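User: Can you fold this complex?
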Amino acid sequence: MNCEKAAEFVSALCDGEQIPREAAEHLGTCGECAVRLNDYVLMGVELKRTAVATAPQSVREVSWGPQERTKLSWWQMWGESMRIPRFAFAAMLISIVALVAGIALTRAQARELWFQFEVRERRGSVAEVGLISAEPKGQVPDPGPVTVSSEPEGTLTFIVRVLEARNGSEKLGVRALWLPRNNDLTDLHKKIQSSPETDYWIVPGQKLNVPVKDYGQIEITGRLLDKLPDDQNPKEMRLYPKEGEFRLTSPQVLLLDGRMVSKGGGDGSNNTKGSYFAYYAPHDGFYIFAFSEFAGAAEGSIKGNQIEFTLDGRIYNLIASAPIVEPGITKIWVRHHSGSRLIEDQPIFPDQDSHSSMMFGDLKAMLEHMTKE
Amino acid sequence: MADDRELWERICRGDTRAFDGFYQENVSRLNGFLRQLLGNIQTAEDVAQETFLQLWRRPNGFHPETGSLRAYLFGIGRKRAAEWWRQRKPTADEQETVRRECKTETSSLVGDSFSRLGADERTLLWLREVEGQSYAVLARILDIPVGTVKSRLFAAREELRRVWHSSRPEKKVGP
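Assistant: Here's the predicted assembly.
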Protein backbone atom coordinates (compact mmCIF):
# COMPACT_ATOMS: atom_id res chain seq x y z
CA MET A 1 0.00 0.00 0.00
CA ASN A 2 1.39 3.42 -0.91
CA CYS A 3 0.17 6.94 -0.12
CA GLU A 4 -1.54 7.40 -3.46
CA LYS A 5 -3.65 4.30 -2.94
CA ALA A 6 -4.23 5.04 0.72
CA ALA A 7 -5.42 8.61 0.10
CA GLU A 8 -8.98 7.61 -0.74
CA PHE A 9 -9.17 5.52 2.44
CA VAL A 10 -8.20 8.61 4.42
CA SER A 11 -11.31 10.26 3.09
CA ALA A 12 -13.39 7.18 3.94
CA LEU A 13 -11.92 7.09 7.44
CA CYS A 14 -13.02 10.68 7.98
CA ASP A 15 -16.55 9.63 7.15
CA GLY A 16 -16.49 6.82 9.68
CA GLU A 17 -16.30 4.10 7.07
CA GLN A 18 -14.47 0.84 7.53
CA ILE A 19 -11.21 0.59 5.64
CA PRO A 20 -9.06 -2.41 4.68
CA ARG A 21 -6.47 -3.68 7.15
CA GLU A 22 -3.64 -2.88 4.72
CA ALA A 23 -4.74 0.73 4.46
CA ALA A 24 -5.17 1.03 8.21
CA GLU A 25 -1.66 -0.30 8.80
CA HIS A 26 -0.25 2.12 6.26
CA LEU A 27 -2.01 5.09 7.79
CA GLY A 28 -0.62 4.15 11.18
CA THR A 29 2.95 4.40 10.02
CA CYS A 30 2.87 7.01 7.21
CA GLY A 31 3.50 10.62 8.19
CA GLU A 32 2.23 12.06 4.92
CA CYS A 33 -1.10 10.21 5.22
CA ALA A 34 -1.35 11.37 8.82
CA VAL A 35 -1.00 14.98 7.62
CA ARG A 36 -3.71 14.40 5.00
CA LEU A 37 -6.03 12.93 7.64
CA ASN A 38 -5.38 15.88 9.88
CA ASP A 39 -6.12 18.31 7.04
CA TYR A 40 -9.37 16.60 6.20
CA VAL A 41 -10.50 16.75 9.81
CA LEU A 42 -9.53 20.40 10.06
CA MET A 43 -11.39 21.24 6.86
CA GLY A 44 -14.53 19.55 8.16
CA VAL A 45 -14.37 21.32 11.47
CA GLU A 46 -13.75 24.67 9.79
CA LEU A 47 -16.71 24.17 7.44
CA LYS A 48 -18.98 23.38 10.40
CA ARG A 49 -17.77 26.43 12.24
CA THR A 50 -18.29 28.62 9.19
CA ALA A 51 -21.82 27.25 8.77
CA VAL A 52 -22.75 28.22 12.31
CA ALA A 53 -20.98 31.58 12.14
CA THR A 54 -22.70 32.63 8.97
CA ALA A 55 -26.15 31.27 9.77
CA PRO A 56 -28.82 34.00 10.02
CA GLN A 57 -30.01 34.86 13.49
CA SER A 58 -33.63 34.51 12.55
CA VAL A 59 -35.68 32.84 9.94
CA ARG A 60 -38.49 34.19 7.85
CA GLU A 61 -41.90 33.77 9.37
CA VAL A 62 -44.20 31.94 7.05
CA SER A 63 -47.78 30.85 7.45
CA TRP A 64 -48.76 27.59 5.85
CA GLY A 65 -52.40 27.99 5.03
CA PRO A 66 -54.44 25.13 3.62
CA GLN A 67 -55.45 27.40 0.76
CA GLU A 68 -51.92 27.18 -0.50
CA ARG A 69 -52.24 23.58 -1.42
CA THR A 70 -52.76 22.54 -5.01
CA LYS A 71 -52.68 19.26 -6.82
CA LEU A 72 -50.80 18.80 -10.03
CA SER A 73 -52.56 17.37 -13.00
CA TRP A 74 -50.57 14.96 -15.13
CA TRP A 75 -49.97 17.54 -17.83
CA GLN A 76 -48.77 20.10 -15.32
CA MET A 77 -46.15 17.58 -14.21
CA TRP A 78 -44.76 17.80 -17.73
CA GLY A 79 -43.56 21.30 -16.94
CA GLU A 80 -41.95 20.27 -13.69
CA SER A 81 -38.46 18.92 -13.35
CA MET A 82 -38.32 15.17 -13.67
CA ARG A 83 -35.77 12.45 -13.04
CA ILE A 84 -35.91 11.03 -16.56
CA PRO A 85 -35.42 12.87 -19.83
CA ARG A 86 -38.58 14.42 -21.21
CA PHE A 87 -38.35 12.49 -24.46
CA ALA A 88 -38.24 9.28 -22.40
CA PHE A 89 -41.31 10.45 -20.51
CA ALA A 90 -43.04 11.19 -23.82
CA ALA A 91 -42.08 7.76 -25.14
CA MET A 92 -43.46 6.22 -21.97
CA LEU A 93 -46.76 8.06 -22.42
CA ILE A 94 -46.98 6.94 -26.03
CA SER A 95 -46.26 3.36 -24.96
CA ILE A 96 -48.99 3.51 -22.34
CA VAL A 97 -51.47 4.86 -24.87
CA ALA A 98 -50.47 2.15 -27.34
CA LEU A 99 -50.83 -0.52 -24.68
CA VAL A 100 -54.23 0.74 -23.62
CA ALA A 101 -55.34 0.88 -27.24
CA GLY A 102 -54.04 -2.65 -27.70
CA ILE A 103 -56.00 -3.85 -24.71
CA ALA A 104 -59.12 -2.11 -26.03
CA LEU A 105 -58.65 -3.73 -29.43
CA THR A 106 -58.11 -7.11 -27.85
CA ARG A 107 -61.26 -6.70 -25.87
CA ALA A 108 -63.18 -5.67 -28.94
CA GLN A 109 -61.88 -8.66 -30.84
CA ALA A 110 -62.63 -11.03 -28.01
CA ARG A 111 -66.21 -9.93 -27.43
CA GLU A 112 -67.59 -13.33 -28.56
CA LEU A 113 -66.26 -16.43 -30.19
CA TRP A 114 -68.40 -18.84 -32.15
CA PHE A 115 -67.90 -22.52 -32.67
CA GLN A 116 -69.00 -23.63 -36.12
CA PHE A 117 -69.21 -27.38 -36.29
CA GLU A 118 -70.04 -30.01 -38.83
CA VAL A 119 -71.41 -33.46 -38.09
CA ARG A 120 -70.92 -36.24 -40.62
CA GLU A 121 -72.85 -39.47 -40.49
CA ARG A 122 -71.18 -42.83 -40.97
CA ARG A 123 -71.56 -42.67 -44.75
CA GLY A 124 -69.57 -39.44 -44.77
CA SER A 125 -72.30 -37.03 -45.80
CA VAL A 126 -72.89 -33.91 -43.78
CA ALA A 127 -75.80 -34.35 -41.41
CA GLU A 128 -75.57 -31.00 -39.66
CA VAL A 129 -73.76 -27.70 -39.78
CA GLY A 130 -74.27 -25.78 -36.58
CA LEU A 131 -73.10 -22.57 -34.98
CA ILE A 132 -73.04 -22.05 -31.23
CA SER A 133 -71.31 -19.80 -28.76
CA ALA A 134 -67.76 -21.05 -28.20
CA GLU A 135 -67.56 -19.49 -24.74
CA PRO A 136 -70.79 -20.26 -22.94
CA LYS A 137 -71.27 -18.22 -19.80
CA GLY A 138 -73.03 -19.66 -16.80
CA GLN A 139 -75.71 -22.24 -17.31
CA VAL A 140 -75.64 -23.67 -20.83
CA PRO A 141 -79.18 -23.42 -22.18
CA ASP A 142 -81.20 -26.46 -23.08
CA PRO A 143 -80.35 -27.85 -26.47
CA GLY A 144 -82.18 -26.47 -29.45
CA PRO A 145 -83.89 -28.43 -32.18
CA VAL A 146 -82.99 -32.04 -32.63
CA THR A 147 -81.01 -32.85 -35.74
CA VAL A 148 -82.27 -35.87 -37.61
CA SER A 149 -80.61 -37.81 -40.35
CA SER A 150 -82.60 -40.45 -42.19
CA GLU A 151 -81.01 -43.50 -43.68
CA PRO A 152 -82.57 -46.55 -45.26
CA GLU A 153 -81.72 -48.59 -42.15
CA GLY A 154 -83.08 -46.20 -39.65
CA THR A 155 -82.94 -42.70 -38.20
CA LEU A 156 -80.05 -40.99 -36.46
CA THR A 157 -80.81 -38.11 -34.20
CA PHE A 158 -78.39 -36.05 -32.16
CA ILE A 159 -77.82 -32.85 -30.21
CA VAL A 160 -74.47 -31.06 -29.93
CA ARG A 161 -73.78 -28.18 -27.58
CA VAL A 162 -70.71 -26.41 -26.19
CA LEU A 163 -70.43 -26.76 -22.41
CA GLU A 164 -67.12 -25.06 -21.73
CA ALA A 165 -64.07 -23.52 -23.38
CA ARG A 166 -60.56 -23.89 -21.98
CA ASN A 167 -57.09 -23.33 -23.43
CA GLY A 168 -58.39 -23.18 -26.98
CA SER A 169 -60.37 -26.41 -26.72
CA GLU A 170 -64.12 -26.81 -26.61
CA LYS A 171 -65.94 -29.18 -24.33
CA LEU A 172 -68.88 -30.60 -26.20
CA GLY A 173 -71.92 -32.31 -24.79
CA VAL A 174 -73.19 -34.86 -27.32
CA ARG A 175 -76.42 -36.84 -27.23
CA ALA A 176 -76.86 -39.28 -30.12
CA LEU A 177 -79.53 -41.91 -30.66
CA TRP A 178 -79.91 -44.46 -33.41
CA LEU A 179 -83.38 -45.81 -34.07
CA PRO A 180 -83.44 -48.68 -36.57
CA ARG A 181 -86.15 -48.74 -39.25
CA ASN A 182 -89.72 -49.35 -38.11
CA ASN A 183 -89.02 -47.89 -34.67
CA ASP A 184 -91.55 -45.52 -33.27
CA LEU A 185 -90.39 -42.01 -34.18
CA THR A 186 -92.99 -40.18 -32.17
CA ASP A 187 -91.71 -38.02 -29.33
CA LEU A 188 -88.27 -38.09 -30.93
CA HIS A 189 -87.37 -34.84 -29.21
CA LYS A 190 -88.17 -36.22 -25.80
CA LYS A 191 -86.29 -39.43 -26.52
CA ILE A 192 -83.07 -37.74 -27.50
CA GLN A 193 -83.27 -35.29 -24.64
CA SER A 194 -83.68 -38.06 -22.14
CA SER A 195 -80.74 -40.02 -23.53
CA PRO A 196 -77.39 -39.62 -21.69
CA GLU A 197 -75.11 -36.78 -22.66
CA THR A 198 -71.42 -37.58 -23.07
CA ASP A 199 -68.68 -34.97 -22.76
CA TYR A 200 -65.86 -34.69 -25.28
CA TRP A 201 -63.00 -32.21 -25.65
CA ILE A 202 -62.38 -31.12 -29.20
CA VAL A 203 -59.58 -28.98 -30.56
CA PRO A 204 -60.91 -26.73 -33.33
CA GLY A 205 -59.59 -27.97 -36.63
CA GLN A 206 -59.29 -31.58 -35.49
CA LYS A 207 -61.73 -34.48 -35.91
CA LEU A 208 -63.69 -36.01 -33.11
CA ASN A 209 -65.28 -39.46 -33.50
CA VAL A 210 -68.29 -40.07 -31.31
CA PRO A 211 -69.53 -43.65 -30.97
CA VAL A 212 -73.28 -44.18 -31.27
CA LYS A 213 -74.76 -47.40 -29.94
CA ASP A 214 -75.81 -49.86 -32.66
CA TYR A 215 -74.88 -47.34 -35.34
CA GLY A 216 -71.14 -46.86 -35.53
CA GLN A 217 -69.77 -43.39 -35.11
CA ILE A 218 -70.38 -39.85 -36.18
CA GLU A 219 -67.57 -37.44 -36.95
CA ILE A 220 -67.52 -33.91 -35.57
CA THR A 221 -65.20 -31.18 -36.79
CA GLY A 222 -65.31 -27.53 -35.93
CA ARG A 223 -63.60 -24.18 -36.13
CA LEU A 224 -63.66 -20.98 -34.12
CA LEU A 225 -65.08 -17.81 -35.61
CA ASP A 226 -64.59 -14.39 -34.10
CA LYS A 227 -67.85 -13.16 -35.59
CA LEU A 228 -71.02 -14.61 -36.90
CA PRO A 229 -71.09 -15.49 -40.59
CA ASP A 230 -72.77 -12.79 -42.63
CA ASP A 231 -75.91 -14.81 -43.24
CA GLN A 232 -76.41 -15.49 -39.54
CA ASN A 233 -75.41 -12.21 -38.04
CA PRO A 234 -78.44 -9.97 -37.61
CA LYS A 235 -76.17 -6.93 -37.63
CA GLU A 236 -74.73 -7.87 -40.97
CA MET A 237 -77.85 -9.31 -42.54
CA ARG A 238 -78.00 -8.29 -46.15
CA LEU A 239 -81.17 -7.22 -47.86
CA TYR A 240 -80.48 -9.69 -50.66
CA PRO A 241 -78.70 -13.06 -50.39
CA LYS A 242 -75.24 -13.48 -51.84
CA GLU A 243 -74.76 -13.97 -55.55
CA GLY A 244 -75.54 -17.56 -56.57
CA GLU A 245 -77.52 -18.32 -53.41
CA PHE A 246 -81.16 -18.31 -52.40
CA ARG A 247 -82.38 -17.68 -48.91
CA LEU A 248 -85.67 -18.35 -47.16
CA THR A 249 -86.42 -16.26 -44.11
CA SER A 250 -89.27 -17.19 -41.84
CA PRO A 251 -92.10 -16.78 -41.45
CA GLN A 252 -93.46 -17.64 -44.87
CA VAL A 253 -97.04 -17.44 -45.97
CA LEU A 254 -98.65 -19.54 -48.71
CA LEU A 255 -101.61 -17.97 -50.47
CA LEU A 256 -104.03 -19.74 -52.80
CA ASP A 257 -106.12 -17.42 -54.91
CA GLY A 258 -105.38 -14.67 -52.44
CA ARG A 259 -106.35 -16.63 -49.34
CA MET A 260 -103.85 -17.88 -46.82
CA VAL A 261 -103.34 -21.60 -46.87
CA SER A 262 -100.63 -21.86 -44.24
CA LYS A 263 -97.98 -19.84 -42.44
CA GLY A 264 -94.75 -20.56 -40.63
CA GLY A 265 -92.05 -22.47 -42.45
CA GLY A 266 -88.40 -22.18 -41.62
CA ASP A 267 -85.06 -20.60 -42.42
CA GLY A 268 -82.29 -21.74 -44.70
CA SER A 269 -80.15 -21.04 -47.71
CA ASN A 270 -78.38 -22.94 -50.45
CA ASN A 271 -76.95 -22.57 -53.92
CA THR A 272 -79.35 -21.70 -56.69
CA LYS A 273 -77.62 -24.23 -58.92
CA GLY A 274 -78.62 -27.84 -58.25
CA SER A 275 -80.48 -27.25 -54.98
CA TYR A 276 -84.12 -27.16 -54.03
CA PHE A 277 -86.24 -26.02 -51.17
CA ALA A 278 -89.63 -27.38 -50.26
CA TYR A 279 -92.38 -25.73 -48.32
CA TYR A 280 -94.56 -28.16 -46.43
CA ALA A 281 -98.19 -27.16 -45.90
CA PRO A 282 -100.02 -29.39 -43.40
CA HIS A 283 -102.64 -31.68 -44.97
CA ASP A 284 -101.62 -30.40 -48.38
CA GLY A 285 -98.08 -31.65 -48.96
CA PHE A 286 -94.84 -30.24 -50.30
CA TYR A 287 -94.28 -27.43 -52.78
CA ILE A 288 -90.87 -28.08 -54.27
CA PHE A 289 -88.99 -25.12 -55.71
CA ALA A 290 -85.83 -24.96 -57.80
CA PHE A 291 -84.13 -22.36 -59.95
CA SER A 292 -83.79 -24.68 -62.87
CA GLU A 293 -86.36 -26.73 -64.73
CA PHE A 294 -87.00 -30.24 -63.37
CA ALA A 295 -89.36 -33.07 -64.10
CA GLY A 296 -93.03 -32.30 -63.46
CA ALA A 297 -92.38 -28.66 -62.47
CA ALA A 298 -94.26 -25.59 -63.65
CA GLU A 299 -92.60 -22.28 -64.29
CA GLY A 300 -93.33 -19.50 -61.90
CA SER A 301 -91.98 -16.03 -61.31
CA ILE A 302 -90.05 -14.56 -58.45
CA LYS A 303 -89.65 -10.96 -57.46
CA GLY A 304 -88.08 -9.89 -54.22
CA ASN A 305 -89.64 -11.91 -51.43
CA GLN A 306 -92.59 -13.20 -53.48
CA ILE A 307 -93.00 -16.25 -55.65
CA GLU A 308 -96.04 -16.57 -57.87
CA PHE A 309 -96.98 -19.75 -59.70
CA THR A 310 -100.02 -21.43 -61.17
CA LEU A 311 -100.98 -25.09 -60.66
CA ASP A 312 -104.15 -26.63 -61.99
CA GLY A 313 -105.34 -23.19 -62.99
CA ARG A 314 -105.10 -21.76 -59.51
CA ILE A 315 -102.76 -18.97 -58.53
CA TYR A 316 -100.39 -19.48 -55.61
CA ASN A 317 -98.15 -17.00 -53.82
CA LEU A 318 -95.38 -17.87 -51.41
CA ILE A 319 -94.27 -14.81 -49.50
CA ALA A 320 -91.12 -14.78 -47.37
CA SER A 321 -89.94 -12.22 -44.82
CA ALA A 322 -87.00 -11.08 -46.93
CA PRO A 323 -85.87 -11.21 -50.57
CA ILE A 324 -85.30 -14.79 -51.69
CA VAL A 325 -82.78 -14.24 -54.45
CA GLU A 326 -80.65 -11.44 -55.77
CA PRO A 327 -82.27 -9.01 -58.22
CA GLY A 328 -82.17 -10.27 -61.80
CA ILE A 329 -83.40 -13.80 -61.14
CA THR A 330 -87.03 -13.85 -62.15
CA LYS A 331 -87.81 -17.47 -62.97
CA ILE A 332 -88.46 -20.38 -60.63
CA TRP A 333 -89.89 -23.84 -61.08
CA VAL A 334 -92.33 -25.48 -58.73
CA ARG A 335 -93.94 -28.87 -58.32
CA HIS A 336 -96.49 -30.07 -55.80
CA HIS A 337 -96.03 -33.36 -53.95
CA SER A 338 -98.88 -34.52 -51.78
CA GLY A 339 -98.33 -36.64 -48.68
CA SER A 340 -96.48 -36.18 -45.46
CA ARG A 341 -93.09 -37.47 -46.67
CA LEU A 342 -91.06 -36.02 -49.48
CA ILE A 343 -88.34 -38.62 -49.57
CA GLU A 344 -88.17 -42.23 -48.50
CA ASP A 345 -87.63 -42.93 -44.83
CA GLN A 346 -88.32 -39.35 -43.93
CA PRO A 347 -89.45 -39.30 -40.32
CA ILE A 348 -92.86 -37.94 -39.54
CA PHE A 349 -93.00 -35.66 -36.56
CA PRO A 350 -96.01 -35.54 -34.29
CA ASP A 351 -96.60 -31.87 -34.95
CA GLN A 352 -96.27 -32.20 -38.71
CA ASP A 353 -99.99 -31.95 -39.24
CA SER A 354 -100.22 -28.62 -37.47
CA HIS A 355 -97.05 -26.81 -38.50
CA SER A 356 -95.62 -25.85 -41.83
CA SER A 357 -91.92 -26.46 -42.35
CA MET A 358 -89.13 -26.06 -44.87
CA MET A 359 -86.72 -28.58 -46.37
CA PHE A 360 -83.49 -27.95 -48.30
CA GLY A 361 -81.21 -30.25 -50.26
CA ASP A 362 -79.78 -31.53 -53.49
CA LEU A 363 -82.41 -31.54 -56.22
CA LYS A 364 -81.15 -34.57 -58.10
CA ALA A 365 -80.79 -36.73 -54.97
CA MET A 366 -84.19 -35.68 -53.77
CA LEU A 367 -85.84 -36.60 -57.08
CA GLU A 368 -84.16 -39.99 -57.00
CA HIS A 369 -85.43 -40.75 -53.52
CA MET A 370 -88.78 -39.05 -53.76
CA THR A 371 -91.57 -41.13 -52.32
CA LYS A 372 -94.17 -42.56 -54.64
CA GLU A 373 -97.00 -41.40 -52.46
CA MET B 1 -37.74 6.74 9.93
CA ALA B 2 -40.98 5.99 11.74
CA ASP B 3 -41.10 9.64 12.84
CA ASP B 4 -40.50 10.79 9.31
CA ARG B 5 -43.31 8.57 8.08
CA GLU B 6 -45.71 9.96 10.64
CA LEU B 7 -44.58 13.51 9.96
CA TRP B 8 -44.99 13.00 6.24
CA GLU B 9 -48.48 11.63 6.68
CA ARG B 10 -49.41 14.68 8.73
CA ILE B 11 -47.94 16.98 6.09
CA CYS B 12 -49.86 15.16 3.38
CA ARG B 13 -53.03 15.65 5.40
CA GLY B 14 -52.33 19.39 5.45
CA ASP B 15 -51.32 19.63 9.12
CA THR B 16 -49.96 23.18 9.26
CA ARG B 17 -48.47 22.78 12.76
CA ALA B 18 -46.53 19.70 11.72
CA PHE B 19 -45.17 21.43 8.65
CA ASP B 20 -44.28 24.58 10.53
CA GLY B 21 -42.30 22.49 13.01
CA PHE B 22 -40.47 20.84 10.14
CA TYR B 23 -39.79 24.27 8.64
CA GLN B 24 -38.42 25.75 11.85
CA GLU B 25 -36.15 22.78 12.37
CA ASN B 26 -34.68 22.73 8.88
CA VAL B 27 -34.86 26.16 7.30
CA SER B 28 -31.53 27.41 8.69
CA ARG B 29 -29.71 24.32 7.57
CA LEU B 30 -31.26 24.49 4.14
CA ASN B 31 -30.37 28.17 3.91
CA GLY B 32 -26.78 27.37 4.74
CA PHE B 33 -26.64 24.61 2.19
CA LEU B 34 -28.25 26.71 -0.54
CA ARG B 35 -25.96 29.61 0.21
CA GLN B 36 -23.07 27.42 -0.82
CA LEU B 37 -24.80 26.70 -4.09
CA LEU B 38 -26.19 30.13 -4.85
CA GLY B 39 -23.63 32.50 -3.44
CA ASN B 40 -25.63 34.90 -1.28
CA ILE B 41 -27.95 34.83 1.64
CA GLN B 42 -30.90 36.56 0.00
CA THR B 43 -31.08 34.24 -2.96
CA ALA B 44 -30.54 31.21 -0.75
CA GLU B 45 -33.43 32.26 1.50
CA ASP B 46 -35.68 32.83 -1.52
CA VAL B 47 -34.89 29.43 -2.96
CA ALA B 48 -35.27 27.79 0.44
CA GLN B 49 -38.68 29.42 0.72
CA GLU B 50 -39.66 28.07 -2.68
CA THR B 51 -38.41 24.65 -1.68
CA PHE B 52 -40.57 24.52 1.42
CA LEU B 53 -43.50 25.94 -0.48
CA GLN B 54 -43.18 23.25 -3.13
CA LEU B 55 -43.11 20.54 -0.49
CA TRP B 56 -46.17 22.00 1.21
CA ARG B 57 -48.23 22.59 -1.89
CA ARG B 58 -47.37 19.35 -3.66
CA PRO B 59 -46.54 16.76 -1.05
CA ASN B 60 -45.63 13.83 -3.24
CA GLY B 61 -42.62 11.75 -4.13
CA PHE B 62 -41.25 11.07 -0.65
CA HIS B 63 -40.82 7.42 0.36
CA PRO B 64 -39.79 7.02 4.00
CA GLU B 65 -38.16 3.67 3.32
CA THR B 66 -35.62 5.24 0.95
CA GLY B 67 -34.28 8.06 3.12
CA SER B 68 -35.04 10.81 5.59
CA LEU B 69 -37.43 13.66 5.00
CA ARG B 70 -34.58 16.13 5.47
CA ALA B 71 -32.58 14.45 2.75
CA TYR B 72 -35.62 14.65 0.53
CA LEU B 73 -35.93 18.35 1.33
CA PHE B 74 -32.28 18.96 0.50
CA GLY B 75 -32.71 17.07 -2.74
CA ILE B 76 -35.55 19.38 -3.74
CA GLY B 77 -33.49 22.37 -2.66
CA ARG B 78 -30.56 21.28 -4.79
CA LYS B 79 -32.82 20.95 -7.84
CA ARG B 80 -34.41 24.33 -7.25
CA ALA B 81 -30.97 25.88 -6.96
CA ALA B 82 -29.99 24.27 -10.25
CA GLU B 83 -33.18 25.66 -11.83
CA TRP B 84 -32.37 29.07 -10.45
CA TRP B 85 -28.99 28.94 -12.12
CA ARG B 86 -30.52 27.74 -15.39
CA GLN B 87 -33.01 30.59 -15.41
CA ARG B 88 -30.34 33.12 -14.58
CA LYS B 89 -27.84 31.82 -17.18
CA PRO B 90 -25.05 33.57 -15.28
CA THR B 91 -22.07 34.98 -17.09
CA ALA B 92 -18.50 34.32 -16.04
CA ASP B 93 -18.48 37.71 -14.29
CA GLU B 94 -21.54 36.78 -12.25
CA GLN B 95 -19.93 33.49 -11.25
CA GLU B 96 -16.93 35.40 -10.07
CA THR B 97 -19.17 37.79 -8.17
CA VAL B 98 -20.79 34.84 -6.44
CA ARG B 99 -17.40 33.50 -5.48
CA ARG B 100 -16.37 36.88 -4.14
CA GLU B 101 -19.56 37.13 -2.13
CA CYS B 102 -18.96 33.65 -0.73
CA LYS B 103 -15.47 34.66 0.10
CA THR B 104 -16.69 37.70 1.88
CA GLU B 105 -19.25 35.79 3.86
CA THR B 106 -16.79 33.20 5.03
CA SER B 107 -14.13 34.17 7.43
CA SER B 108 -11.33 31.67 7.17
CA LEU B 109 -8.82 30.35 4.71
CA VAL B 110 -10.69 27.08 4.52
CA GLY B 111 -13.89 29.01 3.96
CA ASP B 112 -12.26 31.09 1.25
CA SER B 113 -10.89 28.00 -0.40
CA PHE B 114 -14.26 26.30 -0.14
CA SER B 115 -15.90 29.17 -2.00
CA ARG B 116 -13.50 28.66 -4.86
CA LEU B 117 -14.58 25.08 -5.47
CA GLY B 118 -17.07 24.08 -8.10
CA ALA B 119 -20.76 23.91 -7.21
CA ASP B 120 -20.83 20.09 -7.22
CA GLU B 121 -17.84 19.88 -4.90
CA ARG B 122 -19.28 22.51 -2.56
CA THR B 123 -22.63 20.73 -2.47
CA LEU B 124 -21.10 17.39 -1.66
CA LEU B 125 -18.74 18.63 0.97
CA TRP B 126 -21.36 20.77 2.64
CA LEU B 127 -23.89 17.97 2.83
CA ARG B 128 -21.27 15.61 4.22
CA GLU B 129 -19.31 17.80 6.56
CA VAL B 130 -21.94 20.23 7.76
CA GLU B 131 -25.13 18.23 7.41
CA GLY B 132 -23.51 14.90 8.21
CA GLN B 133 -25.44 13.04 5.57
CA SER B 134 -24.49 9.42 4.95
CA TYR B 135 -23.22 8.12 1.64
CA ALA B 136 -26.60 6.53 0.93
CA VAL B 137 -28.48 9.78 1.54
CA LEU B 138 -25.97 11.75 -0.49
CA ALA B 139 -26.45 9.31 -3.32
CA ARG B 140 -30.20 9.89 -3.13
CA ILE B 141 -29.96 13.67 -2.93
CA LEU B 142 -27.48 13.92 -5.76
CA ASP B 143 -28.87 11.11 -7.91
CA ILE B 144 -25.57 9.30 -8.16
CA PRO B 145 -24.36 5.84 -7.06
CA VAL B 146 -22.90 5.40 -3.57
CA GLY B 147 -19.52 4.44 -5.03
CA THR B 148 -19.46 7.69 -6.94
CA VAL B 149 -20.28 9.59 -3.75
CA LYS B 150 -17.23 8.08 -2.09
CA SER B 151 -14.85 8.88 -4.95
CA ARG B 152 -16.26 12.37 -5.48
CA LEU B 153 -15.95 13.16 -1.80
CA PHE B 154 -12.33 12.18 -1.88
CA ALA B 155 -11.78 14.30 -5.00
CA ALA B 156 -13.56 17.29 -3.44
CA ARG B 157 -11.50 17.03 -0.25
CA GLU B 158 -8.32 16.79 -2.24
CA GLU B 159 -9.30 19.84 -4.28
CA LEU B 160 -10.21 21.83 -1.19
CA ARG B 161 -6.96 20.82 0.42
CA ARG B 162 -5.02 21.84 -2.70
CA VAL B 163 -6.70 25.26 -2.91
CA TRP B 164 -6.36 25.77 0.83
CA HIS B 165 -2.66 24.94 0.82
CA SER B 166 -2.03 26.97 -2.30
CA SER B 167 -3.36 29.99 -0.42
CA ARG B 168 -0.69 29.24 2.22
CA PRO B 169 2.41 29.15 0.07
CA GLU B 170 4.63 28.87 3.05
CA LYS B 171 3.28 25.35 3.78
CA LYS B 172 4.46 22.49 1.64
CA VAL B 173 1.87 20.00 0.49
CA GLY B 174 2.70 16.48 -0.60
CA PRO B 175 5.99 14.73 -0.93
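DSSP finds seven helices and 19 strands in chain A. The first helix of chain A runs from residue 3 to 14.
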